[in-house]
Structure formats: structure tokens, C-alpha cells
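Each field is set out underneath.
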Amino acid sequence: ALPRWFVTNFLNGESAETYKGIEDEIISLEIPPGANGLLMLPYFMGERTPIWDENASGLVMGLSLMHQKAHLYKAVLESTAYSLRHIMQTMDSNIVTDRIILMGGGAKSYLWQTIFADVTGLPVYTAKTSIEAPMGDAFMAALAVGLVDSYSQIKDWVEFKPPVMPNKGNHTLYNRYFSVYKEIYPLLKGKMKELKEISKM
């Protein structure tokens, strides 16, 4: 939803060309990890996991006159990867996470794939064919009626492209940004709630 919000409101409307254009701009400007000091909290609709706060709100921190729309868009993409990493950190320690599998429209973006890989430090896989929730629905139906007998057989239904591997240098830098990311919300939680209450007056 965040990339869609950004391109709809600040660029030329949502289209494949718009997304490609802004990503090409990020690449041509050689915007580094962290978008030259920008951090975004992606809580534009409140937030569920891992903070469970309906009063949480979006935030852009670190703006300066040198930042362009491409920096902001990269911060949008990075914020979703920070959010995923934050969720992963709250998972049971017995759950082994050794890869990220991206599905849906965002999975088509190689830039976003590299950001997820570099932020999490994990390889990112995408399917060779476009599959989304209906594939999972079909598999669950097949499991229910006995056409398949194990959850592990989903691997036979999906073929993946070679993974996008994390860049160690970028991951090290993202670790520092992520540390700041996690500290921002607890500091501003009360003020977010106060702003929401004021806006309802």
C-alpha cells in the first residue's frame, strides 16, 4: 500500500511505467542504503505486528534540502523491509528463518528484492510465474480433499528464480539504520496518540 500511496499522490499516478521510472531514478542517482539519512516508519494505517497500536502513525525522519522524491521512495521501500525484520525478531527463537520469499506485485521489483535481502541479511526468492493467494487457496483445497498429503508438497507446485543474495557491506550499514528505526516508535508513541486525539476534536 505504501508504494502505491506514494506514486499515486506524488508522481504521475500508478502504472508500471511510474514504478520503473522512480526505481531507475534511484539507481541513476546511486542513492545508498538508508537513502542518505532518511528513515520512515510505515505505520500509515496504525500497526499490528509487532507493536499492536492503532494510534501508531507514519513518520519520515531525516529530511533535508538535498533529498529528492527518489530518496523518499527508497525510504518507503526500506521501511517495509525494516518492518519485516522487526516482525522476524519477535518470532519464536525455535523458528529458523533462512530465506525470504516475495510474492505479489512488489516481487517484480528487483530493487525491492535487493533491499529486502540487504536489510534482513537473507536470500530473497521470487517465483518464476506470477502466483499469489489463489495458489495457496488451491493447495489448501487439494490438501483438504487428499490430492496432496503434506504441506511440504507446496514446493512441487512452485518453481523459483535464483535468489537475490544480500550484500554484506549494505547489510552492515542497514544494521545501524535498523537500530535507530526500532528506537523511534517507543520515543514517539505517546505523541502519536496525542496527535490522533487532537485531530478528532
The radius of gyration is 19 Å. The first strand starts at residue 39 and ends at 41. The chain is about 50% helix and 5% strand. The chain has a mean pLDDT of 92.
